[in-house]
Amino acid sequence: AALDSGSVAIARQGGKISYIDGKKITLLVNNKKKIDTNLIIYQRSNNGTCIHQKSRVTQKASVKKGQILADGAATLQGELALGKNILVAYMPWEGYNFEDAILISERPIYEDIYTSIHIERYEIEARTTSQGLEKITREIPHLESNILRHLDKSGLVLPGSWVETGDVL
């Protein structure tokens, strides 16, 4: 089932692993021909989720044609991994489940049982106005420095910043 998921990297031919890093796996076939398999690293899917592959093989390991080289988003250790079951109770609770809401404990979220990485892409454009070309900058009048803590010198969000609703991006 994992092979059919489309999320794993598969050996196109049999051989020996000659090189591995976070971006590619190199397979040596018959001690002559090298075949590179590029891994998908933190790419955005069409619905905004993260697609990422992790190597499952070790250097100098022998692999067969069709063997899984790297796990994908829906696999773990070469097997399909579609989530975890949770025991829930559907009941009224202080009015928080009005109409279509269901409450669960925060524990599965804080223990990374039901978390996922989502990638959003935002584009900005500097336009020409009657006062000249717009400028992308960190210098925003009337804002305190703690509000701008996520921005670099040029006014763009620092990679890896934890941002929340209302933060200046």
UniProtKB/TrEMBL annotation:
EC number annotated for this UniProt entry: 2.7.7.6
Keyword Nuclease part of the UniProt annotation: no
GO biological process, one term: DNA-templated transcription
SUPFAM superfamilies documented for this protein: beta and beta-prime subunits of DNA dependent RNA-polymerase
Name of the protein this chain belongs to: DNA-directed RNA polymerase
Family to which the UniProt record says this protein belongs: Belongs to the RNA polymerase beta chain family.
Domain DNA-directed RNA polymerase subunit 2 hybrid-binding: from-to ranges: 10-169
GO molecular function, one term: ribonucleoside binding
Native organism: Andreaea alpestris
UniProt cross-references to Pfam families, sorted A to Z: RNA_pol_Rpb2_6 (PF00562)
InterPro entries: DNA-dir_RNA_pol_su2 (IPR015712), DNA-dir_RNAP_su2_dom (IPR007120), DNA-dir_RNAP_su2_hyb_sf (IPR037033), RNA_pol_RPB2_OB-fold (IPR014724)
Gene designation: rpoB
Keywords linked to the UniProt accession: DNA-directed RNA polymerase, Nucleotidyltransferase, Transcription, Transferase
Cellular component, GO annotation: DNA-directed RNA polymerase complex
Main EC class the enzyme belongs to: transferase
